[in-house]
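DOMAIN: structural biology
WANTED: fold as tokens
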Amino acid sequence: MVKRCESSEEGRCGVQADVIVLGRSLPGIVTAHKLKMRFGDSLDVVVIDLPRPPKGVSKIDMVTFYDDDDNADEIDNNATQQNLDSYSRRFLLMYAKEFKISIPDEVLNPLNVPHTHNKVFEHTNGSTVPCNNNFHDFEYLTVLEKFELNQYQRLIDEHMINLFCVSKTPSASERKQLLYFDRTTMERHICGALLFPTSREIMRSIVRLVCGVSPSSVSVLFYLHQCYRNDGCRDYIDGNNMKLREKLLGYYRKLLAHKLQESVADITLQANSIKNIRTYSHEQVILETRDEDTYVCRLLAMALRPDELHDIDVEPLLLSPRHADIVHFMLPGRLKKFKIRYETDFWRRDGFSGEILSIRGPIVWAIERPMLSATGSKKRLACLVGFLKAVKYELHKHDSKAEVIEQLVKLFGNDAAHPVNYRESDIEDLFVPRCGDYVALKKWTEEENVRFVEWGTLDMYRDGDISGALEAGHSAYLRVSSQLRPQGATYEEVSAVDIRTNVYGNFFTRVTSKVNFVSGLSLVAYTAAIYVGIRLIKSYMNKT
């Protein structure tokens, strides 16, 4: 049992436990729940919930799911096994099964839900093109633009496979490639591989949607890792993309978080702000609050946002100056979400599905908002939701209603001029390491020989990306249990974090992925230079 001891001084108290989880974020309560369920009373686990909510929590609309045992048991086993192939859905299914929660098809397999793919793409100059296929097919581009954009996406997928999908120990050349990608920016990579401005702007929009920051602030390696989690970069704009739909609509998060919080309620303690974290005799970790209450444990699992660590004094043995520097300079990803509601879905009357992709803005990406009722029936509201073009932090409270309505009127006609309701909210659920920090961050958060503190949940998406938060908490649980009870984790728990992607393709695709206009022009230039050099040498030799 958790040991509590009252101090002789008024208002002072202390708590001793085997493991303390600092922070009640979704990764934190996943870690605590798994430890509690696996080890029970044989391991003392405490969750410390700080009094004030974290700054910048994602404001995402929630939907209610029909929650009973009969409905949950209707999940088809074959469909479940098929979806396990997608890493981003694996954790959703795992915890849905544990808590007997049914997940709608719109989340698990949106491609299998019948709907009209009649979307609108808007160019930088304001011209619009309808498209009947998924956005990532780019049918609306010119032949040359489509070719180089598809080639670039294939190239990204190949880099992803080469860097992350290897079962053997990376070679020296592979390590150098890893470091190369980490020391270059995404913007430089885009400009080095894409020739046409439309293709570049589309990729920049994709990077903003994925990371919440401009391409110049994202390392290629960090972006590739997000593609790796989502089975390839070609799923980010539409189709079977899970991450954006989760972040946008908040599917499943509210109910899941409620179930997890109920599970750990009896081991959750309210605490004042933490002042410092230190060690004692190299055997314990001690957390002290500002009113000098103490919490003592054998191992501390951090589940705070990186910016929440700024006001906590952590002993260098637990957080080295180099690692503290990495945490301090992690950039918060930032997007603005909008929701606009109308009396009727007039876009469907005109044959459109309500889905938008624009590189002009202010709307960058939008879909028609589905609603699930408490009875399990499905219907659609006359409502569009999506992301707005990134704005500077000091302007994040600026309301873009007039610009959004103007854009929708241009796309769908005058019916869009009179909405019933409009709302914007900030989404700040991702922290992006600096371009040169990603390798060090991954190495640090994946170490299993850290004796006192588990930092794995720093390398995470926040609650907006449900599968990412579940992944962070599950991985932290595995590392904590491996330190305290090496034989504790089951095969199913360990195999859950073993990523396998479905983007290998055939040999011809993998070879041709490296061919694009930029590389082609470079090859022509080098070939011409070699040819001219050979002719000059021959001419010189003939003269002599």
User: Anything to note?
Assistant: Residues 227 and 233 are 5 Å apart (CA to CA). The longest helix spans residues 517-543.
